[in-house]
Amino acid sequence: MSDPIHIKDHENEKRLVNKRLLACGILVLALAGSLVARLYFLQVTEFSYNSTVSENNRVHVLPIPPERGIIFDRNGQVLADNQPSFNMTLTRERAGDVGQVLDTVMSVLNLPEEDRTMFTKILKQSRHPFEPVTLLYELTEQQIALLAVNEFKLPGVEVEPQFVRHYPLGDHFAHSVGYVGRINEKESKQLDPVEYRGTQSIGKTGIERFYEDELHGHVGYEEVETNAQGRVMRVLKHTDPIPGKNIVLSLDINLQEAAEKALGDRRGAVIAIDPKTGEVLAMVSKPSFDPNLFVTGIRAKDYSALRDSLDRPLFNRALRGLYAPGSTIKPEVAIAGLDSGVISPSTRVFDPGYFQLPNVEHKYRNWNHSGDGWVDLNAAIMRSNDTYFYDLANKLGIDRLHDYLNKFGVGQKVSLDMFEESPGLMPSREWKRMTRRQAWFPGETVILGIGQGYMQVTPLQLAQATTLIANKGVWNRPHLARSIGQVAPVDEHPIPNIVLRDPRQWEQVNYAMQLVMHDPRGIARAAAVGAQYRIAGKSGTAQVVAIKQGERYDRLKTSERNRDNALFVGFAPAEDPQIVISVMIENGEAGGRVAGPVVREILDAWLLDKDGKLKPEYAHPLKPHEDPKV
Question: Between 198 and 532, where is the model more confident?
Answer without folding.
Answer: 532
